[in-house]
Write a structure and sequence with these properties.
This protein has helices spanning about 25-30, 45-60, 70-80, 125-130, 150-165, 205-220, 230-235, 265-280, and strands spanning about 5, 10-15, 30-40, 40-45, 85-95, 110-120, 130-135, 170, 180, 185-190, 195, 225, 240-245, 245-255, 255-260. The chain has 2 domains: about 5-120, Aminotransferase class 4, branched-chain amino acid transferase, N-terminal domain (D-amino Acid Aminotransferase, Chain A, domain 1, 2-Layer Sandwich); about 125-280, D-amino Acid Aminotransferase, subunit A, domain 2 (D-amino Acid Aminotransferase, Chain A, domain 2), CATH 3.20.10.10. The chain is built from 8 helices and 15 strands. It is α+β, with helices and mostly antiparallel strands. Strands 7, 8, 9, 10, 11, 12, 13, 14 and 15 form a 9-stranded mixed sheet that branches. A hairpin with a 5-residue loop joins strand 8 and strand 9 (about 180). It binds N-(5'-phosphopyridoxyl)-D-alanine (PDD). The site of N-(5'-phosphopyridoxyl)-D-alanine (PDD) has 14 residues, from helix 6 and strand 13.
């Protein structure tokens, strides 16, 4: 099966897709993106991903219309052409090509890149044993609700966590409030209640996060979106992270603190089951 790119409307092998060194995405990380997964050829919650992309574009002063760019049909076409059972689709839009200048022109043609790769299964060791996360001060910019491709602070935090023997970092505000992980949202379960940090500008408003909250409602787990301290996270009964690429993955250690007894706790398991049931329902996929 081929891994494909679609660059400015032209489909071809990923290795053949080329962008200019003057692309503002390369020069300034002046670009936004989305990640969508398709199961059996059907993208999961594509409307929500494209709505978030539209919001990212607007917040970055990129006056483009996702509908006019025809992204939904390009995503569908690329998934069909690549033919994987599970496809990972990246949609990246840069402001366009311009001689290097902080001041961007208003008449640029955006660069629109989609890639279609086979989605790899989540590491089976992580599914069985959960992941260990390390708290770290969030060094990112102030507008993390924008899904921007400038992810250097995320990459550095992840690397430091891995070097220290963890799988990921939980990014924490200077005041000690939990935000999210480097590429996922975070949830805690305390006394049977599901808690996740408020969706403000300091975190990405995860499509999976929203879906997890809906799953919780469907299995009668009460949920709260509110500020959460590091102490609260470390002393909770269960912790998990959520993202398009991992769905729900249990966390079994926060810093030096064991969470639960090594596997997914009962509430996490019931949410994982509700999540799986939902994915296989036609209404969840576009
Ligand atoms: N990352 N927070 C951050 C910082 C993320 O990068 C992501 C997703 C999430 C979860 O969002 P969603 O549920 O919509 O995938 C939260 C993707 C998977 C990535 O960058 O590859």
């Amino acid at each position: 099966m081929p891994e494909l790119a679609c660059l400015n409307g032209e489909f071809g092998p990923i290795a053949s897709a080329k962008v200019s060194v003057n692309d503002r995405g390369f020069q300034f990380a002046d670009s936004v993106y989305e990640v969508v997964v398709a199961y059996d050829g059907r993208p999961f919650r594509m409307t929500e991903h494209l709505d978030r992309l539209q919001r990212s574009l607007s917040l970055c002063d990129m006056p483009m219309d996702v509908g006019e760019l025809g992204l939904a049909s390009l995503v569908t076409e690329g998934i069909a052409r690549s033919g994987f059972d599970a496809t990972l689709v990246y949609v990246q839009i840069t402001r366009g090509v311009q001689d290097r200048n902080h001041l961007y022109r208003d008449d640029l043609t955006p660069t629109v890149l989609l890639t279609f790769r086979e989605k790899q299964p989540v590491n089976p060791d992580w599914l069985r044993d959960g992941v260990r996360v390390m708290t770290a001060t969030d060094e990112r910019w102030a507008l993390c609700e924008i899904k921007a491709t400038g992810l250097l602070a995320n990459a550095l935090a992840k690397k430091r966590a891995v070097r220290a023997g963890y799988q990921d970092a939980v990014l924490v505000s200077p005041e000690g409030f939990v935000r999210e992980c480097t590429a996922s949202n975070i949830f805690a379960i305390c006394g049977g209640r599901l808690i996740t940090p408020t969706a403000d500008e300091s975190i990405l408003h995860g499509v999976t996060r929203q879906y997890v909250l809906e799953c919780a409602a469907s299995v009668d787990v009460p949920s709260e979106e509110r500020p959460m301290t590091v102490d609260e996270l470390r002393s909770s009964d269960e912790v998990f992270i959520s993202s398009t690429t991992m769905n729900i993955l249990q966390v079994t250690r926060v810093d030096d603190r064991e969470i639960g007894n090594g596997g997914a706790g009962p509430v996490t398991r019931s949410l994982q089951e509700a999540f799986r049931r939902g994915i296989s329902q036609p209404g969840q996929v576009v």
